[in-house]
Model the fold of this input.
Amino acid sequence: MSASLEKGINALKEQVDSTVAAFFSSCVHCGMCSDACLFYTETGSPASTPINKAEPLRRIWKSEYTLLGRVGKMFGLTAKVDDELLTNWETLVYDNCTLCGRCSMVCPMGLDIALLIRKTREGMAAAGHAPEGLIGATKRAVTIGSPMGVKLPALMAQIGHVEKDTGLKIPLDVVGAEYMLLLSSMEIMNFPEFIEATAKIFDKAGVSWTISTEAFEATNSGIQIGVADIAAELVQRIVDAAEKLQVKTVISPECGHAYMAIRWEGPNLIGKPFNFKVRHILEVLDEFRKDGRLKITGKETQRLTYHDPCQVSRRGGVIEQPRNLINMFAENFVEMPDGGKMNWCCGAGGGVSSNERADEVRLKVFQRKKDQLDEIKPDAIISACSNCRIHLEDGLEEYNMDIPLMSLTETLAEHLAD
Amino acid sequence: MTNNKDKTLGETLRSQGISRRSFLKYCAATASMMALSPAMIPKIAHALESARRPSVIWLSFQECTGCTESLTRAHTATIESLIFDAISLDYHHTLQAASGHAAEEAREAAMKENFGKYLLVVDGSIPMDNPGYSTIAGISNYDMLMESAKGAAAIIAVGTCATYGGIPHANPNPTGAVSVGDLIKDKPIINVPGCPPIPVVITGVLTHFLTFGTIPELDHIGRPKVFYGQSIHDRCYRRPFYDKGLFAETFDDEGAKKGWCLYKLGCKGPTTYNACATTKWNDGTSWPIEAGHPCLGCSEPDFWDGGGFYKSLSMPTENIAQTAVYAAAGAVAAGVALGAMNKSKKNSAAKAHNKTTIDDLEK
Amino acid sequence: MNEIEFLSWVRGQGFQIAVIIFIAGVIIRFAEILLLGRKANIAEAKGSEMSGGMRTIVSRSFPDKNTFQRSTFTVVAGYIFHIGLFVTIFLFAPHILMFKDVIGFGWPSLPTPIVDAMAVVTIIALLAVLTHRMRDTVLKFITTKEDYLVWMLTILPLITGYMAFHRIGMTAPTLLAIHILSVELLLVVFPFTKLMHAFTFALSRWYNGAISGYRGVQS
Done:
């Protein structure tokens, strides 16, 4: 409708700042980022070299913001950004990158390549080169309130079930509650056990909490598709609800990009600091543990491992908390090879799971996760991101592996002492 | 001197009481210096003994007489000096007895008598800006050179002034000095540079000419390879210190006392081709580097303009620090301007931003 | 122009021109980068930008085990030629004299045979790096003409320096002049190519470390 190349180029120009300029100035084309990216290691396609994915943004930086590029542009010598380029790059930027940021950790020059690709998406989306699946999810997120089209009645129905099963009251729209819990659509639709688990833990911990009926959705398609305006709008809904209910802390659920959106990008998107805190559910639970509010009984004897969701661990900084919590109930915990901040992505983050076109490649690159798992042969995998969880289950099925997936919060709830 | 003209060198030697033994010793030394095989010694001896003393005309232009001084310091009764006695030096300002018209007549007579056969030796550069800068008997240096060169069998340019312009040619070259080679293109020219050249090198070149009747093999700037084939640095006895990285930092430090490499004191040995390190000076007594002073590079073109005698070869010759400061000052201004342009471009991109809604995601 | 004039020019005016372009270029590039500015992060901080940034400037020189295993050649060859360049450029006595003349102070040099050997090692490493670049699928794909130009201009001073030191093929003044000229070429293109990473790597690593450090992650 109104997306255009001009808008895309303008968006890319807006994205260039001193970090972008310093990053591109430092790239020596060593190719080490490719070895850090599962979309290269598992496909062998050199086009999937992370830094190559940021090429549209690099061209804008070079031709608009460097002396040599400006001169070159005058003589028509600099590489242009046009629709052909963006068409060719669309699958690289959206289908073959999960913004997992592993490349950003190995680049010897310190380029935050994931950030560059995230910024490139701003231009791609404004130029009308976002994938259909993500556009659909984004539209649903804005119009319906959830990328999966989950509406309040659906949540209410699940809450009804949970209340019936547990006998606990799920507090809705409680003004002045300490915590406001956000949920991802996936949790509402696929894993309502999460709501149950949280309710149980909070009840035992004796803290006041609530769910807002006006802003319960944690996910943010805006940051996945790369439209800051839409991302800001979605963040604003949560901010409005949190301010209305005067909560002290907003809790991001077991979802990677939701945490990135609300915790780290949120205030910067809307342009003002929050007057409440934002914590990942694992951070909150670890606080409970430290305060002695979390009483655990019984041990898991099976061999457990933890899959670090990229946006929670590497990009989010929640690394030791899950390990503290797992240690409360796991007798036989084994770290994933490269676990922690260097963990390999499941292959479906950063909007890849909303993009049907990427289904084939995301399952192909799951080979990386399979190799990791083959090395340690766990009995079960714990994670803290519903999106990882769905894709891991998908991948394990595809590769005929029979390893159950567990949510950390849910497993913890199962071990709550009475 | 003219009455000796018909004597051969052998006869002259004998009349001077030089033994055959010491003559052969000289021939052997010459052969070794010129890197000839020992089998050549008898040939050299024979050629020298039977050589009819060729006529030599020596022209001095813009020079300091240092080259002649160097030659006359070739000690008493050495064979080298006798070689000079043995040639027929028909014209030489400093050494000839005749003066005024008689001197010029001697030159003209020698040229006429030996047309096509005489050797022309030149020291000093030729001023081209104004002929009046240097004249002899009312004749400009240029005219005299061109006239004398006509009948020469070969020309030997002696000293750096005659070979490459030397000190008169140094920046800013007020007289427009040029070398012999700049003016004469149709005669064989042997360049024997040095400020001054080593005496035995001059006599060696003469010996070669007398022995073979040809000019020796020359390098790309006209120097006999046998004497100028290796750099000072390559033959320097202090070279091991360079290789080990042991340098004198000042003229009176421990390194200087221990005889370490003089590179840091500006030695031009690495880029200078001459025989000083092997023949030494003053009858093999010593040479500049042995005396503790860096090589000035005097046998190379433009040695006077090489950025200073005490500036190491690896140092830039201009004031780079100052250049850098000026460049930096200018660049800060330019950088701020370009940075401001970047900032304003980014700001206008932000201004041009229309809020993107879900209706703007497709074309 | 004879060889001594050539040598005088590269030691004089040529050097001046190269230094002007180099200094001005580097300053302009830094101004272009820094004056773009970046927005302050207003999310609640979990760690320090400064300490994260400073840490990454250092830590990014040491790849983690998995990265080393996956990119062994790049890391090892990269280390060798960077150390080699450092030694040949900064620890060779004549070079130190040059720096001393320009910036007013010097430092101790390494024995010449060590520098000589390092030059050979560096040349070999750079040749290996080039071969790798021309044969590796990824590198072939991402390599640009600029990469080859920069490679050429980096190895040239090493080769010409080696030739000048050992007097191979030409007269000493010509070799020395060519060597200095090759360095001047390197200086001239430096600010406008990826060679700038020699300076901007610190900036880039700092930003990377700061972005992560702010979120409490050591990157």
About this structure: DSSP finds 17 helices and nine strands in chain B. Chain B touches chain C through 52 residues (CB under 8 Å). The longest helix of chain B spans residues 320-351.
